[in-house]
């Protein structure tokens, strides 16, 4: 089987007159950990939202394991691609375990996922995910009462329950203090490595990109400025990437 899991081909996306992504192409292989870096407004979130099929491109194609993303129904796509967004998409009033089980939403009816009565097998599944992220004891708590770092872990546990092959994360740790951010990233990358998942994440910190990712893609003005193994990244590329626009 081919190692290619994701192929992005000449994707363009405009918002009004703003060209957000311009004919961007990228191929990702199974097990890669790709960090998207670049200045604010460079198109990182837009790219992730396109891959996650939350928005549609103006032109170009995205293939998941060789099949066009448009050919997947929601349930089939949820088995392939999972996403953690900056706002985490947790339901604050619900208990931790119910948020975690929302990872099975694609298998369930929406109503069933909101029923607070949790069936034993599903409970075990959620608890084992919460155990992996180190907050099993919090499972009955109301999610809004948890700290930012703990909520990040709930979102990770939900992703474990969804169990997609490709994990997309949009600035997954930008709201955390450095110690917790490293904690969450190290957890995320070790889970990805152990389970042979593919990880594509936008990351605001070059230091974290270096520490936790194998490949780094620099975006600027909706174009790929560079794409290289993380260990090859030098100050030169970073200077160009983050330099202010002149002329
Ligand atoms: P990044 O995540 O790298 O900061 P984004 O992908 O969020 O960048 O945004 C890239 C560009 O597209 C920005 O100029 C932003 O203003 C614009 N943009 C993104 N989403 C929208 C939207 N829903 N409506 C209008 N413009 C948008
Ligand atoms: Mg963004």
Bound molecules: adenosine-5'-diphosphate, magnesium ion
Which regions have little confidence, pLDDT < 50, spanning 5+ residues? none
The radius of gyration computed from the alpha-carbon positions, rounded to a whole number of angstroms, is 18 Å
Q: What is the general shape?
A: globular
The largest sheet, given as strand count, sense and whether it forms a barrel, is: 6 strands, mixed
Number of strands: 10
Q: Determine the CATH superfamily.
A: P-loop containing nucleotide triphosphate hydrolases
- Please estimate the helix content: 25-40%
Sheet with most strands: strand arrangement? 6-7-8-3-9-10
Figure out the total of helices: 9
The CATH class is Alpha Beta
Strand content: 25-35%
The helix/strand order is EEEHEEHEHHHHEHEHEEH
Architecture in CATH?
Answer: 3-Layer(aba) Sandwich
Tell me, rounded to a whole number, the average pLDDT.
Answer: 89
Alpha-carbon distance between the termini?
47 Å
Briefly summarize what is shown:
The protein is of the alpha/beta class and 247 residues long.
Q: What can you tell me about this protein's structure?
A:
There is one protein chain. With about 250 residues, the protein is of the alpha/beta class. The chain has a single domain, classed as 3-Layer(aba) Sandwich (Rossmann fold), CATH 3.40.50. It contains 9 helices and 10 strands. The protein has helices at about 45-50, 75-80, 95-100, 110-115, 120-130, 150-160, 180-195, 205-210, 235-240; strands at about 5-15, 20-30, 35, 60-65, 65-70, 80-85, 165-170, 200, 215-220, 225-230. A 6-stranded mixed beta sheet has the order 6-7-8-3-9-10, with helices on both faces. It is globular and about 50 Å long. The N and C termini lie far apart (about 45 Å). The mean pLDDT is about 90. Bound molecules: adenosine-5'-diphosphate (ADP) and magnesium ion. The site of magnesium ion (MG) has 4 residues, from helix 1.
């Amino acid at each position: 089987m081919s190692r290619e899991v994701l192929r992005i081909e000449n994707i363009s996306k405009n918002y009004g007159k703003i060209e957000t992504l311009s004919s961007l192409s990228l191929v990702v292989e199974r097990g890669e950990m790709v960090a998207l870096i670049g200045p604010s407004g460079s198109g990182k979130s837009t790219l992730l939202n396109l891959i996650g099929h939350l928005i549609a491109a103006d032109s170009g194609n995205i293939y998941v394991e060789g099949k066009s993303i448009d050919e997947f129904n929601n349930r089939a796509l949820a088995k392939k691609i999972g996403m953690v967004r900056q706002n985490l998409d947790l339901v604050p009033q619900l208990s931790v375990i119910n948020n975690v089980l929302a990872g099975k939403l694609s298998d369930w009816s929406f109503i069933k996922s909101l029923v607070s009565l949790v069936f034993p097998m599903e409970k075990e599944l959620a608890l084992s995910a919460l155990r992996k992220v180190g907050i099993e004891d919090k499972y009955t708590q109301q999610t809004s009462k948890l700290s930012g770092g703990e909520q990040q872990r709930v979102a990770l546990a939900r992703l474990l329950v969804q169990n997609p092959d490709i994990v997309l994360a949009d600035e997954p740790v930008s709201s955390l203090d450095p110690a917790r951010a490293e904690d969450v990233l190290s957890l995320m990358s070790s889970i990805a490595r152990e389970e042979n998942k593919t990880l594509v994440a936008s990351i605001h910190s070059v230091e974290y990109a270096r520490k936790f990712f194998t490949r780094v893609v620099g975006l600027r003005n909706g174009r790929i400025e560079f794409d290289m193994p993380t260990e090859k990244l030098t100050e030169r590329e970073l200077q160009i990437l983050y330099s202010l626009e002149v002329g």
